[in-house]
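Could you show me just one protein sequence together with its fold in token form as a worked example?
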Amino acid sequence: MLKIWIEQIKNKPDHYGVDYWKYNVSGNILELYVQKEYLEHEHEYRKAVISIGKVLQALRHKLTDKGHQYHIQTFPNLDNSALIAAVRILSKSPDNNSITGPDSDITIQDEKLLQVSLESFARANQLTLHEIKSSDLSDVVIPAPDSNLNWFALCANNNNPFIWLRVGYWQEYMSCLETRLQTGLLVVTDTTICSNRLILCSSVSNRFVQLLLGIPKEVTAG
């Protein structure tokens, strides 16, 4: 089952950054590794870890939806920087129904709840979503800038592989909501801000900016 799901995920190579990682399945355990050619350069390693975070979030959703109990161990061997996570299926839930929990994908019917949901999921993963002013973006190249967007920075107090994995969780969660709601989010990913992750330091209290998000004004809260 894990092998089937991971192969389905690989059918979306651009979305899940398939070139950055590889996997190994043994019985009920799936291991996810960064490809060796991306281990030496922090920028590429970061993108690989974020991609694996997206994969893990997708697997969480599949496991939860099918009613499986599971355990995900991240960075199980700190001496092996290539091994990012191990996913173990434990058992089927007693009633064979879907499991709901903090990692499950919450169904949102009202697009006005989009921002609130993204902020909540960020907090659950030790991240924060800060609204920023357009003037803060003067030094950032924004693809297709749009005055009808409110801009937010996804930030963290630290900048390390544990955080990058959580950025991947959040980005996959956001992608699932956007697929459902079709609100027209605009995401500015790592490639634009990698050279200066504190470029918005005055606006986000010196936190590390992980990515930028534009949300149409008509669907933002407040």
